[in-house]
Amino acid sequence: MAADEEDKAERVRRPSGKRVAKQSGDAEADSRVGDAGGKRAKGRVTAAHAMRYAVEQLQELLGRAPESVSTVKPTGEGWEAAVEVLELERVPSTTSVLASYRVTLDEEGELVSYERVRRYTRGQIDPRM
């Protein structure tokens, strides 16, 4: 981030009360600002926000950027997501090792727990069920 961009950066609050960096004109961060803050009327974050929060918090803990979110589903206490993370990059890329993590979030989108449930190579196809 350039020095002049840093001056334009402001801080916004996530529904959890945590602060996140926001660039002016950042639509994703703008969606977290305001009275709703990404929450529905009952205080539960939306599925889209739960997905973003799962990625943000897992990246912070693992130090690796998740590649995708394969599932997001509501639970009685919040949300559960399956997040795919590149664990070992290899050449060719089809031999790279990925992992699938089960991430549990509370109703406000805060990470409660995570666990690695599967490791596989990028080129691997699941058997038919």
What's this model, at a glance?
20% of the residues lie in helices and 38% in strands.
Structure description:
It is a single chain. With 129 residues, the chain is an alpha+beta fold. The chain is 20% helix and 38% strand. The chain is built from three helices and six strands; from the N terminus they run H-E-E-H-H-E-E-E-E. The chain has helices at residues 3-8, 27-30, 47-62; strands at 10-13, 19-22, 66-74, 78-88, 97-106, 111-121. The strands form two sheets. The protein has a four-stranded antiparallel β-sheet with strand order 3-4-5-6. Strands 1-2 form a two-stranded antiparallel ribbon. A hairpin with a 5-residue loop joins strand 1 and strand 2 (19-22). The longest helix is centred in the middle third of the chain and has 16 residues, at 47-62. It starts with a helix and ends in an 8-residue tail after the last strand.
Per the principal axes of the C-alpha atoms, what is the gross shape? elongated
Unreliable stretches (pLDDT < 50, length at least 5) are: 1-36
Q: Work out the helix count.
A: 3
Biggest sheet strand order reads 3-4-5-6
> What oligomeric state do these chains adopt?
single chain
Give the tally of β-strands: 6
Report the mean per-residue pLDDT as an integer.
76
Percent strand: 35-45%
Task: Give the termini distance in whole angstroms.
Answer: 47 Å
Note the run of SSEs as H and E. HEEHHEEEE
What profile does the largest beta sheet have? 4 strands, antiparallel
Structural class: alpha+beta
Percent of residues in helices comes to 10-25%
Rg on CA atoms, Å = 17 Å
